[in-house]
Design a protein that fits this description.
Helix content: 10-25%
Structural class: alpha+beta
Strand content: 15-25%
Radius of gyration: 35 Å
Largest sheet: 7 strands, mixed
Strand order of the largest sheet: 3-4-5-2-1-13-12
CATH architecture of the largest domain: 4-Layer Sandwich
Number of strands: 17
Shape: elongated
Number of helices: 5
CATH class of the largest domain: Alpha Beta
CATH superfamily of the largest domain: Endonuclease/exonuclease/phosphatase
Length: about 375
């Protein structure tokens, strides 16, 4: 598939929320396959199965240097995880990873941007007024409400229900591309989004590949049940769309969000450079120009009887007139003697140079005629 650009060198960050339904291979292979398809920065993974080996702790590093933060195993739920790309490992707040039931969060502080990343995998069972889904909403609300001051929230959630259709009172959080008919779970999750002013970003942009996020292994019609929500200003969000990837075997599609950031990483191109030019060099052989002219069979532009009137300018920027001592100068201007009144001796230079500004910058000598 076509590689999607992200935060590697474009001044943006890529966040992917994805229910991977258990990584069938090791996490190492999963991340390498995903890196071939997208330039990801942060992964918010639901139903994360860990790696083939048992991790020594809830925070560990892959062989490529990516940081993995995973929930502690619990009864009745799958394990959620955050994965931070190795190039962003330095921006993670120490000891900021926390989990609460089916929700977990991680704080990231970057130059110009601070984020609280929140993952959630809501209960898939039937809804009851005081059941498991309500408890999940309370746990998620606690993580969002405790966000440090100045941090923006990005939530990646498997809601287990549609949030559409959009209505007038939901237009601040749902866009025109919200699909499906929400049930009791969708109503409860939408109330949480309205309380915290979290926009469902993947409902505000038309997706050429379709807006559905789960196909239920083709056993029933696909639905839009996975969302990325945030209180980021609209101008900070570059795009948000679904991801078709073969990195994981799952019936869900990831939701890719690209946001503008204060960090601009530039690609480093190798440029072949010649040898360094010497500094402070001067011409030692004053016949150098004459020798070049003779080799190229170029006639002397000045007759012999006018050699004393002509200014001889050399390749290092120095010049002289007649037999006078050499005068150092820079390219781009012609220097005359201090307070010299233009006369026949300067006619050759004035006519050859056209408009000429004197050293004080107050007079212009143009096509001077003595």
């Amino acid at each position: 598939m076509e590689r999607i650009g992200g935060g590697d060198d474009t001044g943006t960050l890529m966040f992917i929320s994805w229910n991977v339904r258990g990584v069938e291979t090791s996490i190492e292979s999963f991340l390498r396959d995903l890196s071939r398809e997208v330039q990801w920065d942060y992964l918010l993974l639901q139903e994360f199965s860990g790696s083939a080996r048992t991790p020594p702790s809830l925070q560990w590093s892959t062989f490529d240097g990516h940081l993995v933060f995973q929930q502690a195993p619990g009864s009745g739920r799958k394990v959620g995880a955050m994965v931070v790309h190795a190039r962003n490992a330095m921006f993670v707040n120490k000891d900021s990873f926390q989990g609460s039931g089916r929700s977990w969060s991680l704080d990231v502080r970057m130059p110009g941007d601070c984020f609280r990343l929140v993952g959630a995998h809501m209960h898939p069972g039937h809804f009851t007024a005081d059941g498991d889904y309500w408890d999940n909403i309370v746990e998620l609300d606690d993580l969002i409400a405790s966000t440090p001051f100045g941090y923006k929230v990005i939530v990646g959630a498997d809601v287990q229900d549609a949030l559409g259709p959009g209505e007038i009172f939901t237009s601040c959080v749902l866009g025109p591309y919200s699909e499906g008919i929400r049930g009791d779970k969708g109503d409860l999750f939408l109330a949480l989004a309205l309380e915290h002013r979290l926009r469902a970003l993947n409902t505000f942009e038309r997706d050429p590949g379709g807006t559905y996020t789960c196909n239920y292994d083709l056993t029933r019609p696909p639905k839009q049940i996975d969302f990325t929500l945030s209180n980021l200003p609209a101008k900070k969000v570059k795009s948000c769309r679904t991801l078709d990837s073969s990195a994981a075997v799952t019936d869900h599609r990831g939701v890719v969000t690209i946001v503008y950031t204060g960090i601009k990483r530039k690609k480093k191109y190798w440029v072949a450079k010649g040898p360094k030019k010497p500094i402070g060099w001067s011409l030692a052989d004053f016949t150098f120009n004459d020798q070049i002219r003779k080799q190229l069979d170029i006639e002397d532009p000045f007759p012999e009887n006018s050699q004393g009137l002509a200014y001889r300018i050399y390749t290092d920027g120095s010049f002289r007139r007649g037999n006078r001592n050499i005068v150092m100068a820079g390219w781009g201007f012609v220097a005359f003697d201090r307070c010299e009144v233009p006369g026949p001796s300067t006619r050759v230079v004035c006519e050859a140079s056209g408009p000429t500004v004197d050293q004080q910058g107050t007079r212009i000598l143009q096509n001077f005629q003595p």
